[in-house]
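Hello everyone,

My group is preparing for a crystallization screen and wants a predicted model to guide construct design. The compound we'll soak is thiamine diphosphate. Before spending weeks at the bench, it would help to have a computed complex in hand. I've included the protein sequence and the ligand's SMILES below. Output in structure-token form would be ideal because that's what our pipeline reads.
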Amino acid sequence: MKYRGARILIEALKDEGVDLLFGYPGGAILHVYDELFKSSDIHHVLVRHEQAAVHAADGYARVSNRPGVALVTSGPGATNAVTGLATAYMDSIPMVVISGQVHSFAIGNDAFQEADVVGITRSCTKHNYLVKDVRDLQRIVKEAFFLASSGRPGPVLIDLPKDIQEHECEYLPRDQIKIRKRRLYSEADADKIQQAWELLKQARKPLLYVGGGTVLSQASLELMELARLTKIPVAMTLMGLGAFPGTDEQSLGMLGMHGTYFANMAITDCDVLFSIGARFDDRVTGKLSEFSKHSQKIHLDIDPGNIGKCVDIEIPLIGDVKQSLKALLKIVKKDENTLTQYHQQIDSWWQQIRDWQKKAPMTYEQGEKDITAQYVIDRFYRLTKGEAILTTDVGQHQMWTAQFYHFDSPHAWCTSGGLGTMGYGFPAAIGAQLAHPKKKVICISGDGSIQMNIQELATAIEWKTPVIIAILNNRFLGMVRQWQELFYDHRYSEVEMKVLPDFVKLAESYGAVGLRAQVKGDVDKVIQQALQVTDRPVVIDFVTTLEDNVYPMVPAGGAVSDIVLA
Amino acid sequence: MEDNYSKHTITVLVENEFGVLARIAGMFAARGFNIDALAVAPTENSKISRVTLVTHGHERIIEQIVKQLYRLVDVLKVQDLSDEDCVRCELMLVKVSIDSSQKEKVFAILEEYGGRIVDDYQGKILTLEFVKEHEVTEEILAALKSFKILETVRTGNIAMQKGGHEEAFYSADINEINE
Ligand SMILES: Cc1ncc(C[n+]2csc(CCOP(=O)(O)OP(=O)(O)O)c2C)c(N)n1
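Reply:
Good plan to model first. Here are the tokens for the complex, ready for your pipeline.
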């Protein structure tokens, strides 16, 4: 069958199982929108800003483990999408973004709404394509989805000139389309896995350091089994939260700058550190020369580029987390009769950890009146029984959510860990809600961040997504204020939100439910009220304490062991 | 300088895709790696090009360069040739302005380094061609300093492993899969 390019794109997307995409139209992508109009198999979510389209696709991908898809026009449409791409790239989120482009013959002529999108996005995509011939289009789409979701996942962009959308060619069944083969890793080298177990076995103070790669590889069950068999403590990165149940007694919670005291002490003091799908990010390691100095390190990662990038590794395991853990488990099970002895071997390590936990448990103070942010998150946790999907923006509220919503399962947590993008949370929540219509989705945001994509209330209303937006309103760009308080001697430079909208009225003006909590007693009431709403978004303005700080805190540039408790 | 800080010649086989050089150069720039010299040309397989680049850095950096190159989708194979037994050379063209009394000296240099004259403008301006390892072309340039050098063009080292190693990777076609 002969189709024009625009139709081929739609058919190829359907072939990849796409039934939902997020986008915003414009001149250079009109033919595609025309085909979308005629197709009933793909639902298009019209956002109100292209950045939101990409974040929504990102949220969709994180909770469903399927690539998210976004569609934007050329020039400003594509440049608006860049922040979303960079966000997804830093967190290795599978995604395909299609941008319209001016006619091929106009490329390079500074045509109206032309931008060098392939050039601009080269360093924030896993790969990108400029389609120069309609006969390549089907292959490129298939390859894009393959690349986005295989190996270390990531966003892939397809730039599609307007004339290519018009050109006709033969549309082929998907299984006749050949794509180029890529290096793919399944399980790590068997000898290395054996060595890893030998090293772990002789450890007296072992630690599992679990990152987002474990979530992406869907390896929670294998991780759980390894932890159960060996009784090794588990600490997670911001991106790894949920890979192992946060409420499990073997969990030490989060590592890093605002991680728990005991996780940070454990990583400092351990003698064998097993990194599983993590990348020794500076927010976890603190000052590198002081980081986990006494440990021998095993590093399991699918991207060889991550191994040895920041710290020296004794045993590199290059491979998929799930497959490699499976192989490791087989070896561990052969030693099953020695495991009881192993548990005794690491018993004094556990006592040490329990002491740390007693010294500095994760708690907060909540008085009778003024609302603290931690309390709000704690109440959300209790009232949703920990079963909601949480998204956040960036700042103090993000860290408090990570600390106090004890994620027990993976794919229920969307936060911009690598890029730290304010404005991410709400659109990501819409995407997550559309992927899981039955689940409760809550976006925890700040009074600063929410204003970066508040316009998406319109989208949420249109799609009747009952996302709860909880604004922890401290009238400050709180995290920046915290740094100014601690490191700039209280010089609060441009961090006060002197003008804020009335969030309740703002919500209502869109047709959403607006609620406000001003004292502690209001908190449960508004949360329960919000949880009842099923057909539209709810904005809750939690008026919280002004100048609370996130603790514990590893001072920037300091050693992890310099962690400050309060 | 520490002892493990050295020059490396890295060869990269890439698919002849649009923008592949920009990807490589962009990755080097974005990650703060150096490129001292760069040569790109198709191989005997028209779908595949070879990029040869000369860089310098500590072992860890070189290791990262190789790994980060492998992350680029169009990159098929990366090899650090520094530790291998290799033939290396670069092509250098030098335009010198001389008077008739200097001709002899020029010939002597050509003789010594196996160069030749590729253009002769009225016996006064000569374009000389040399094919030698980079270190040697440095020497040649130094020797030519006694004349007036008008222009120099060099390709930077390219390199190839000596002897008969395994069948070249790219002699087969690029693998394609239907998946
Ligand atoms: C797009 C963007 N701009 C700037 C920053 C820097 N930044 C990090 S946290 C923060 C403050 C966020 O304030 P708010 O959303 O009110 O959250 P709070 O910290 O008060 O919880 C800022 C400005 C960022 N992360 N992202």
